[in-house]
Amino acid sequence: MTICIFPGTFNPIHKAHLRMAEFAIEHYNFDKIIFIPAYIPPHKDIDIDLAKHRLNMVRIAISNNPKFELSDIEYKSEGKSYTLITVKKIIQQYKINTKLNFIIGTDAFEKIDSWYKVDELKKLVHFIVFPRGVKLSPKQGFEYELAPMEYINISSTKLRNKLEDGTIDKVKEYIQKNDLYKN
Fold first, then answer.
1. How many Cα atoms are found within 13 Å in the side-chain-facing hemisphere of 140?
2. pLDDT bucket at 144, cuts 50 / 70 / 90
3. Which domains does the chain have, with CATH numbers?
4. Which of 30, 51, 81, 101 has the most CB atoms less than 10 A away?
5. What is the reported pTM?
6. C-alpha R_g of the chain
7. Element at 3 (helix H, strand E)
8. DSSP string covering 57-126, please?
């Protein structure tokens, strides 16, 4: 079974996230995409009270696709979500003996040199980098490829301020029901 992980804050998950995962399955023939919402992202200031809601929103958003799976591995850790630790746990859990496939946007990949123990991480992961409106500079020592998917301009930040077109209907209902993202 070929799997690919898709870690992220998903604050909230939106249509572009789903399209990236669908594209990865179609283009790279993955059997499964594992969504991994961060509990506390090390590089973002985020309301910890939203962790459970973000996990629930991902669960709702991916429920109709049997090739999508939710992992609560970072949620259960209840600490900062360091990618290296998660990757090692996933490799062990799924008994992976090759590099782990990993979906990431150009915006996050541009900042990857600042990640926790990145030199160790780059030995374990094959990155599939999706366009996110940021030009990618060459990265030395990383195994990566640019996904040939057209950029979809949807931002979680903008969605939190105004639930607009990029919001998944069931997620929008969940946000409204739980009175999330009120200014």
1. 0
2. very high
3. 3-177 (3.40.50.620)
4. 81
5. 0.92
6. 16
7. strand 3-8
8. HHHHHHTT-TTEEE--HHHHHTSB--HHHHHHHHHHHTT--SPEEEEEEHHHHTTGGGSTTHHHHTTTEE
